[in-house]
Amino acid sequence: MNPDRPLWRTALSPRWTALLLLALAIAGVMSVLGVWQLDVYRSKTAEATAKQALAAPIPLQSLFSVDEGLPAKAVGRRVTVAGTWGPAADQVFITDRRNGSQNGFWVVSPVKLDSGAVMVVRGWVASVNDPAAVAPTGPVQLSGSVVASEAADSSGDAARGRVLSSLRIPTLVHMVNYRLYDAFVVQTSLESGTVPAPAPAAVTPPAPPTDHAGLRNVAYAFQWWIFAAFTLWMWARMVLDAHRGSTEDDEDLPDQDRPTESVASSGTVSA
Q1: Residue 166 CB neighbours (<10 A)
Q2: CB–CB of 35/220 below 8 Å?
Q3: Would you say the pTM of this structure is higher than 0.85?
Q4: Domain count along the chain
Q5: Is the peptide bond before 196 cis (omega within 30 degrees of 0)?
Q6: How many CA atoms lie within 13 A of 60 on its CB side?
Q7: pLDDT in tens, 145-155
Q8: C-alpha distances in angstroms, 171 versus 1, 102, 164?
Q9: pLDDT of residue 85
Q10: In a domain, 263, yes or no
Q11: For residue 244, is it within any domain?
Q12: Residue 200 belongs to a domain
C-alpha cells in the first residue's frame, strides 16, 4: 500500500462521501425503527402488568393446589380466600416492617381451607403485644394479593419463637402440623368473619411483577440496530477495499506513467 496516499482522501472523494450520506440516512432510519420497537415493548409490558393488577379476584385454589409450587403467573394476582382462621398458636410476626415512619411487625395468621391452609398477612402492628395482634377465630372470607416467599432464611428465628425476620414458607411448614400453600396472601379486604377491634393497620401489597409481554419486539429492536451498524460497517469496508485497490493500481503503473518526482534544487542533471 502506498503510504503517500492517505485513506481519508479516498473516503472524502465525492463518490464515497455521497455513499456515506446515504448509509447514514439508512442507518438513522433503522435506529429509529429500533427505538420504536422498544417503545412498543414498553407499552405492551405496562398494559399487561396493569391488566394483571386490575383483574377481578378469583379463588386461591383455582390458581394452584397446595401440592404445587407457586407458579410465576400467580404472583401479584388478586384472590379470594374462604375458610376458617387457624389456631392462635400458629400466628407469627415478621419483624422490621415499616408503616410510614414507624417500625413494627406484620401479623401473619393461617386460614384453613378444604385442602391445607394459607398464611395471610392481616396487617401491621407496633408490637407483638398490641391488642390488634390478637388472633381472630371462626369462619372468614377475605380478599388479597398473592406474594411469594422472601429470600432471606429465618429458620434460626423459628427455633427461638414466633417472631421471624422474613416471610418464608419453607420456614413455616416446620412450625405447623398441616400443609401450607406455597404463597402468602396480603389481606386487602375482609368480606365476612370476625373483625378484631382494634384491627391491625392495613399493609399495601407489593406491586405485581412486571409482565414482560412483547419480548419479541425487543428482538426486533436489536435487529434494526444491528442492521444499522452493519450498513456503516459495509461502507467502511467498501472504502477500505477501494483504497487498497487504488494504491495497488498505482504500484502497478510503468515507471514512465508514475508521477514525476521533483528534482532537488541543489541537484544537477548529468548529460
Answers
A1: 16
A2: no
A3: no
A4: 2
A5: no
A6: 35
A7: 999 998 888 77
A8: 73, 26, 9
A9: 94
A10: no
A11: yes
A12: no
Shared-domain flag, residues 182 and 153? yes
Q: How far apart are CA 213 and CA 5, in angstroms?
A: 54
Kindly state whether residue 258 falls inside one of the protein's structural domains.
Answer: no
Residue 149, all three cell numbers = 416467599
Rounded to the nearest 10°, the torsion over CA 101, 199, 52, 166 is 60
Check residue 1 and give its pLDDT: 47
Q: What is the 3-state secondary structure (H, E, C) of the chain?
A: CCCCCCHHHHHCCHHHHHHHHHHHHHHHHHHHHHHHHHHHHHHHHHHHHHHHHHCCCEEHHHCCCCCCCCCHHHCCCEEEEEEEECCHHHCEEEEEEEECCEEEEEEEEEEECCCCEEEEEEEEECCCCCHHHCCCCCEEEEEEEEECCCCCCCHHHHCCCCEECCCCHHHHCCCCCCCEEEEEEEEEEEEEECCCCCCCECCCCCCCCCCCCCHHHHHHHHHHHHHHHHHHHHHHHHHHHHHHHHHHHHHHCCHHHCCCCCCCCCCCCCC
* 183 and 85 fall within a common domain: yes
pLDDT in tens, 172-225: 998 999 999 999 999 999 888 776 778 899 998 877 666 666 778 888 899 999
98 shares its domain with 143? yes
Residues of the chain with pLDDT under 70: 1-5, 49, 52-53, 158-159, 195, 208-213, 247-271
Instruction: Please provide the size of the chain in residues.
Output: 271
> What residue numbers bound the domain in which 228 lies?
7-43+214-252
Among 144, 147, 142, 145, CA closest to 182: 147
